[in-house]
Amino acid sequence: MDDVSEGEGVSEGVGEERFGEWVAVRREPEGHVAELVLDRPKAMNAVSTEMARNIGDACAALAADRRVRAVVLSSTHERAFCVGADLKERNSFSDADLSRQRPYARAAYTGVLELPMPTIAAVHGFALGGGFELALSCDLIVADPTAVVGLPEVSVGVIPGGGGTQLLPRRVGAARAAELVFTARRVEAGEAREMGLVDHLAARGEDRAEALELARRIAANSPVGLRAAKRALRTGWGMNLRAGLEVEDAAWRSVAFSGDRAEGVAAFNEKRAPRWPGE
């Protein structure tokens, strides 16, 4: 939800799959860490209808890939993670156009939110409106000191529509979320870290590298265990303790008799690195 500027993207590389013009998925050689790359630099990654479709398609492919144990959501633009909805595109929309766009937008944000493996957003520069909602849809957020985050939608006559009104209170509490949404104010990196809007503050320009390193540490663990743990954490949101414990028990039962559990116990006792079967 900001002005756009010119910039250079990245060319397709080894291990990279394009989903339309503006979104790519890069897989590391062993295939366990994937990077979902926002690559629309001339618009500071503003999310147009087509880009939303690209994000949704990329998330569907990642969700189906059993090799992937962790995903990093990153940006190719030097000064922005994502500035939110493409308001230049929307300026020409009729009400019918906006209604037709809505399913693609929802699929993009829901696609990130519902990825079954742990996800980490690597944020630098502007992460505003829908851009910040993409980051909030991830399990963890790594930011560098240039990061500026916020949900300014009420300043242009709408509300956060990519999950912001639900995800932000779960991060920082209802009152603080209400203040940020109602004032539409932008929060710089240091304050964002203090408030819990981001989880890790990296050195300048190191948000992507730190997020990838964190993803690799996560991906060293059981793929079956990681997906079940995320399912328990996410499903238990908003439930009372008793209901949440039932969710946890169901997730535990889904992994307790798995090949990964047997391999993990054997590797521990044999003092070696596990070779996860992922079953």
Short description:
This protein is 45% helix and 15% strand. The protein is α/β, with parallel strands linked by helices and 279 residues long. Helix 5 packs across helix 6.
What are the key terms here?
alpha/beta, Lyase 2-enoyl-coa Hydratase, Chain  A, domain 2, about 280 residues, disordered N terminus, 2-enoyl-CoA Hydratase, Chain A, domain 1, 4-stranded mixed β-sheet
Order of helices and strands: EEEHEEHHEEHEEHHEHEHHHH
Mean pLDDT: 94
CATH architecture of the largest domain: Alpha-Beta Complex
Total number of helices:
11
Q: What is the beta-strand fraction?
A: 15-25%
Top-tier CATH class of the largest domain: Alpha Beta
Annotation, overall tally of beta strands: 11
Overview of the structural elements:
The protein has 279 residues and is of the alpha/beta class. The chain folds into two domains: 16-219, 2-enoyl-CoA Hydratase, Chain A, domain 1; 223-270, Lyase 2-enoyl-coa Hydratase, Chain  A, domain 2, CATH 1.10.12. It has eleven helices and eleven strands. It has helices spanning 49-63, 87-90, 95-113, 130-136, 164-172, 174-183, 189-195, 207-219, 223-235, 241-256, 259-270; strands spanning 16-18, 23-27, 33-38, 70-75, 80-82, 119-123, 126-128, 140-143, 148-150, 187-188, 200-201. The strands form two sheets. A seven-stranded mixed β-sheet has the order 1-2-3-4-6-8-11, sandwiched between helices. It has a four-stranded mixed β-sheet with strand order 5-7-9-10. A hairpin with a 5-residue loop joins strand 2 (23-27) and strand 3. Helix 1 (49-63) runs parallel beside helix 3 (95-113), helix 5 packs across helix 6 and helix 9 runs antiparallel to helix 10. The model is unreliable at 2-14 (pLDDT under 50).
